[in-house]
Write a structure and sequence with these properties.
By secondary structure, the protein is of the alpha/beta class. The chain contains eight helices and 15 strands. The longest helix has 20 residues.
Length: 303
């Protein structure tokens, strides 16, 4: 099989097809997502066999896995070797894709959608509330705005690194768009922060009394406790990984809700798909924060 070796520059190599072990399935992939974490690993020289989100079909199962998985079209996260024609996965981190769902839509939902909906639930977002999303043009951010709108948001504010993303963000449901250097205007009830750093404290300052900020990026940042106390604001961290391990039934509920939103047209994922041989440009698009929505590689076509 072919796979991507993330050397400098990344290239295509041939490798034996893996064999599923106990509790594993073998997936013939269609798409694999390019994410910011991958970009960081490539820069650090640690992206040997990186994981990520994939969509594909189960073609073999290992011991302890029901044969009913054979032939299932699935999407989810694999822990390593995502950027290859065939990859090993575990059923707990996969979900069956409903009939008729396009591969690109499925790829956007199985990870970015879970992050977006999970962050909204962590922030106890309710109909009639206002919300601001940083990193709004990202794979998770652009879905978070749409889900918030579908859940009855009174106002959706998108924050992005550059004004040239404004048309895209308005098409994704934003009532207004601001850049990180502009004044963010009226306070909101909930902030979803997908960027971190200095924006974390700015997000807290943008909250109404009793407002909630959910931090779900790996960008770090610090919040002064005294900025929370007078107006009873809160900051919550969110991780899909921990939730999947500790409360898989909640993840299953989120997936069901997301597939329904997708089927009803409540969310419209935006995905830019590159051929596998164009992995370099795909990484560059994400590294330079120019992506509008999710970025993916078509791993079913390596030549």
């Amino acid at each position: 099989m072919y796979k991507i070796r993330f050397s400098a520059p990344p290239d295509l190599v041939e490798d034996p097809r893996p064999t599923p072990g106990p509790g594993q399935v073998l997936i013939r992939t269609e798409l694999a997502g390019i994410h910011l974490g991958l970009v960081r690993m490539v820069r650090a020289g640690t992206a040997e066999e990186p994981g990520g989100e994939v969509v594909g079909t189960v073609v073999a199962v290992g011991p302890e896995v029901p044969e009913s998985w054979l032939g299932a079209r699935v999407g989810g996260v694999v822990m390593s070797g995502a950027y290859a024609e065939y990859v090993l996965g575990v059923p707990a981190l996969l979900t069956e894709i409903p009939a008729g769902v396009a591969a690109a839509d499925a790829l956007a939902v199985v990870r970015g959608g879970l992050v977006a909906l999970g962050a909204l639930r962590a922030g106890r977002f309710a109909a009639g509330e206002s919300i601001l999303v940083t990193g709004a043009a990202s794979g998770s951010g652009h879905l978070a705005m749409q889900i918030a709108r579908a859940l009855g948001a009174s106002r959706v504010l998108a924050a992005a690194g550059s004004a040239d993303k404004a048309a895209f963000l308005r098409d994704c449901g934003a009532d207004a768009v601001v850049t990180y250097t502009e004044n963010w205007g009226e306070p909101v009830d909930v902030v979803l922060d997908g960027v971190g750093g200095d924006l974390l404290a700015r997000g807290v300052a943008t909250l109404n009394p009793h407002g909630r900020l959910v931090a779900y990026s790996a960008g770090g940042g610090a919040v002064e406790a005294n900025s929370l106390l007078p107006e009873l604001k809160t900051v919550t961290g969110f991780s899909v990984g921990l939730l999947a391990r500790s409360e898989p039934e909640v993840i299953a509920e989120y997936r069901t809700e997301l597939w329904k939103l997708l089927g009803d047209g409540g969310i419209r994922p935006r995905v830019t798909v590159f051929p596998a041989v164009e992995v370099g440009p795909a990484l560059g698009l994400v590294a330079e924060r120019r992506n509008l929505g999710r970025v993916a590689l078509r791993t079913s076509e390596f030549q």
